[in-house]
Design goal:
heterodimer; A: 661 residues; alpha/beta; 5-stranded parallel sheet; 34 strands; 24% strand
Chain lengths: 661, 329
């Protein structure tokens, strides 16, 4: 065995606290080591060249590089040794930077630890054997989870590039939150006018299949070859027959809460969320349907001209194969009622959320764009009243550690400015509009100018401070707060209070993340692979992120990210075959006791039962499916599964090397 | 445990009849039951291969052995054999565990379920005399013990049952093809369920360490415990006996011996109902089943899981639910 050890200085990154030169010399004493060298920058061209030269001249058959994290340069050095004719898996990195020099101030101690790390790496390379990569066919179909603006943009970009895309949406229509918005900042263009054409493009595109009212049940497989079980929820309406005429909704006698209008209006038990819905298909909310609850009615069945109603419909399961998955599941509105008891917990009718107000501002919304006080709506003999004083309160469920949301929701400052302007526009310039804020975050293109416009042109009064309490008094909502710039208490009699409720992770986000095997943060937002350098990828190969499921985002950022993600997917799927890592599991069938725990725990379905000549069955790892995660190795009670290039014995040898020598 | 209602003979007859019929009809090639030992103080496993030998089978409160242990290795043996088997409540739970993991072939198995009213702690009973006990008899609530000199002592049955029988929740088998006799009434609430574990848990740390060291100092690494264990199946490939990779040392000292038992405990966790076969097999009398009882107590309290209750159950350590205590951040 001829091992070469190369110790990096990384400029002074390592050399300041580790004696790179000294430990390189000492490493020469280790068993099997025939060449050592210290290099100022090992990853540089001369550094890599020095390694290759040593391999050729000294006939090295194993290489250890003691430098930075393998995350940083393992791939680099594997390529280097391969370039010199050595199998790339006969190489090991010792991390003496992140694990050593950066965290130890003392040079002698740091050097000692670096030497230990090198000893371990040398112990490991002694066990290594050459490994060879496999290739696997790539499925070119893409699954987009979520049909909001992010999912729509990604799907359209991919479909335009010629890939087949399936969009799975949990609601009965695509469109997401953007479909609920009235206008968009900072241009005040109509949200529906710019979104609905995209929704229609999606439904008409030959490469896009929309599966609305469906959810992801199970995800198996790996990059290039995912198998996904999709549950099509029972809508009680045969969508192949439904023509979206809305007759059922008109005649249905049962009222139901209207989620699309954020509960400020009611819809029917059988409903289509909004006129531009895509697909425009009806669904029955069985919890409110008289037939399901009381066993009488069936009005919809009688009026349906297409004979589409099917009370017996069951959830249906579809299995599909994809090469890549884009997660674009968006966000939810922060449920402020559960947290802000000082604002009445939702019991004061004239205190509403920003999204509810958005629906009220919308010309096709329940009030046809008229701004009305909810306390005066829907009552006999009471004429709905327009508010004369409207108060906006910012940072509801954002930048507030007391409700577990220390992050900024990114959009509330801007949508509040927009809604303040629209209030003046809809109700009249004489309306008093106040905005209580902590800081104004107007960071995007044209944003600062937009807020300035609200403050000057529309005379919206911005009060810097937090509202401490809201309560009803003589038909008004008393707003008690603090103007921290003037340093005095403020009290306003408001007709309407709009809470700029922030963005929270979508309901069920963490469960979906577990199904997909991707990470999520403590708030339920999905984690990108690297915040700066890999913002669109997850840590699971082949699964990408788009939109607010990753973090609160406004529409321009979401759309930009969605297109970026489409480009990433295209980059991945441009190849016909993917190289798989050879560092995968292997079964010693002589020792296998056929307990099948490996099959049970494998997230990729890599182990299978293989029939041997004697008729017995033993575990066998399908090489192209195994991702080398090692969970079977840890699970196998007889230890008959080992990870190639990362064997149990080599780990033990490393421990022994550092503890016993 | 309810007092014995003494229908042992009836059940014994029933076991013999079921075994005879199965053998006569060729549904089984041999039947594994209990048979008389070398004297009247002991009942041992017995293999019956022809219908005219079924009268050798017995059933009484000394039938401690969990016969499922004979299934685990190369089931069936020989490969085409069909096996008949008698199981008590706890035995059936180990069988259910094996069936859950497809480690035995249900098609080749004929299971006679035996409702059990508690098994005598033979080890405790035989210590009432300094010399050899030759006969143990159970009549209602009394155990009569006779030694080689013909002296007899009467013991209260309740006090000399196996610990886990006293808090047994499942005296009737959870899985069987035919039940020998009437099912016994299942106790509703067995308090105190974990008495002996709670007593141990309450001890000071140093005392626990001392007791553990004392117990495992004695271990001679004969591996009788894992050979007798119905749900331990690694056999010659046991990581505790393997030299490559060298995960557990074969040195015999308290620390290494405990390590070996810990590996066993975790390997059978969620599959072992603590039937006590390991404990009874131990020649140096280490109270091994306490380890498994402890694991079962944790599984019950943390995950509300009891091993071997039904076939549909998933082995607990192969499942993960975000709502279980391991799933919480």
């Amino acid at each position: 065995m001829r091992i070469g050890v190369f110790v990096c200085h990384c400029g002074t990154n390592i050399a300041a606290t580790v004696d790179s030169e000294g430990i390189a010399a000492r490493a020469g004493e280790l068993k099997g080591v025939v060449h050592t060298e210290d290099i100022i920058y090992t990853c540089s061209e001369p550094g890599q060249h020095a390694i290759q030269q040593a391999i050729r001249e000294k006939n090295l058959d194993r290489v250890v590089v003691a430098a930075c994290s393998p995350h940083m340069h393992e791939v680099t050095f594997r390529r280097t040794v391969e370039g010199a004719g050595l199998n790339p898996y006969l190489f090991e990195m010792a991390n003496i930077r992140e694990h050593c020099s950066w965290i130890h101030p003392d040079k002698p101690e740091g050097s000692e630890k670096a030497y230990d790390l090198i000893k371990m790496a040398v112990a490991k390379v002694r066990d290594l054997e050459p490994l060879y990569a496999n290739e696997v066919e790539v499925n070119k179909d893409v699954l987009v989870i979520g049909g909001g603006v992010a999912g729509i943009q990604t799907a359209l970009d991919l479909a335009e590039a010629g890939l087949k895309v399936t969009v799975v949406e949990k609601e009965t229509t695509i469109g997401g939150t953007m479909a609920q918005l009235d206008k968009t900042f900072p241009t005040i263009d109509c949200s529906a006018c710019i979104l609905t054409p995209r929704m229609v493009d999606c439904s008409q595109h030959e490469n896009i299949e929309i599966m609305a009212y469906s959810e992801i049940d199970r995800v198996q497989g790996y990059v290039g070859n995912f198998t996904v079980d999709i549950r099509k929820k029972a809508s009680m309406v045969d969508w192949d027959k439904c023509i979206g005429c809305e007759l059922c909704q008109q005649k249905c006698p049962a009222k139901a809460p209207d989620a699309f209008n954020e509960g400020i209006a009611t819809t029917k038990a059988i409903y289509i969320p909004f006129p531009q819905a895509v697909p425009k298909k009806a669904a029955i909310q069985v919890d409110y349907c008289r037939w399901f609850q009381e066993g009488k009615c069936r009005v919809c069945e009688r009026v349906c001209p297409a004979d589409a109603i099917d009370y017996e419909q069951q959830d249906e399961f579809v299995q599909k194969e994809f090469g890549a998955i884009v997660v674009a599941t968006g966000q939810d509105v922060f449920p402020w009622e559960d947290y802000y008891h000082e604002y009445g917990s939702g019991r004061i009718p004239d205190v509403i959320s920003g999204l509810q107000y958005e629906r009220m501002l919308n010309a096709s919304g329940p009030t046809h764009g008229h701004v009305l006080r909810p306390s005066t709506m829907g009552q006999k003999d009471v004429e709905p009243e327009e508010p004369k004083t409207v108060v906006f309160i910012q940072c509801i469920g954002s930048r507030d550690e007391s409700v577990g949301r220390p992050y900024c929701s990114n959009v509330c400052c801007m949508y509040t400015a927009k809604q303040a302007i629209l209030t003046k526009d809809h109700v009249g310039m004489e309306t008093e509009v106040y905005v209580f804020y902590i800081d104004i975050r107007a960071f995007g293109k044209g944003y600062e100018e937009f807020v300035k416009r609200a403050q000057t042109e529309f005379a919206v009064k911005y009060v810097r401070g937090r509202v401490s309490k809201l309560y009803e008094e003589r038909g008004k909502v008393k707003v008690r707060g603090m103007d921290t710039l003037l340093g005095k208490q403020v009290e306003i009699d408001a007709d309407l209070v709009v809470l700029a409720s922030g963005i929270t992770a979508a309901d069920g986000a963490s469960e979906l993340a577990q199904r997909l095997n991707i990470s999520y943060d403590q708030y339920g937002f999905f984690k990108e692979s690297h915040p700066k350098l890999r913002p669109l990828e997850t840590n699971t190969a082949g699964i990408f992120l788009a939109g607010a499921c990753q973090a609160p985002k406004d529409i321009p950022t979401t759309v930009a990210q969605a297109s970026g993600t489409a480009a990433k997917v295209l980059g991945l799927l441009a190849k016909d075959k993917l190289k798989t890592s050879p560092m995968i599991a292997r079964v010693d069938q002589n020792r296998c006791v056929s307990c099948w725990k490996c099959i049970e725990v494998c997230p990729f379905s890599a182990p299978e039962k293989e029939e041997l000549r004697d008729g017995s069955y033993k575990s066998h790892i399908i090489e192209t499916v195994c991702q080398g995660c090692g969970i079977c190795v840890a699970t196998c009670p007889v230890n008959c599964i080992d990870l190639k290039g990362f064997g149990t014995q080599s780990v033990l040898d490393q421990i022994e090397e550092v503890l016993l020598t | 445990m309810s007092p014995a209602n003494g229908n042992y003979e009836e059940v014994e007859q029933r076991i013999r009849e079921l075994a005879r019929t199965a053998l006569e009809e060729g549904r089984v090639d041999y039947f594994i039951g209990w048979t008389a030992g070398y004297n009247e103080s002991e009942v041992i496993p017995g293999f019956v291969r022809s219908a005219d030998r079924v009268d050798a089978l017995v059933w009484n409160p000394l039938a401690a052995y969990n016969l499922t242990a004979f299934l685990k290795r190369k089931m069936p043996d020989p490969p085409q054999a069909k096996i008949g088997l008698a199981v008590k409540g706890c035995d059936s739970r180990t069988l259910v565990s094996l069936l859950q993991e497809e480690l035995v072939d249900r098609e080749r198995l004929y299971v006679v379920g035996v409702p059990c009213e508690g098994i005598v702690n033979r080890r405790a009973v035989s210590k009432v005399f300094a010399n050899e006990v030759v006969k143990i008899e159970v009549e209602d609530d009394t155990i009569s013990v006779t030694n080689q000199d013909g002296e007899t002592k009467q013991l209260a049955r309740e006090e000399y049952l196996l610990d886990h029988c006293r808090s047994c929740k499942y005296p009737n088998p959870r899985y069987f093809d035919d039940l020998a006799g009437e099912a016994v009434t299942e106790p509703e609430d067995q308090a105190p369920m974990w008495r002996e574990i709670e007593e141990f848990e309450a001890l000071p740390e140093a005392e626990k360490d001392r007791l553990m060291a004392e117990a495992f100092e004695k271990c001679i690494r004969c591996y009788a415990c894992i050979n007798a264990c119905p749900v331990c199946y690694c056999w010659d490939n046991c990581v505790c006996r393997a030299r490559q990779p060298k995960l557990v040392s074969q040195k015999v000292n308290a620390q290494e011996n405990l390590m070996f038992q810990m590996v066993h405990m975790f390997h059978v966790a969620g599959r072992c109902p603590s039937c006590g076969n390991c404990d009874r097999a131990c020649p140096v009398e280490i109270p091994l089943y306490l380890l498994h009882r402890k694991m079962n107590k944790e599984l019950k309290e943390m995950l509300d899981f009891e091993p071997g209750i039904d076939l549909e159950q998933k082995p607990v350590f192969q499942t993960f639910d975000v709502n279980d205590p391991f799933g919480q951040h």
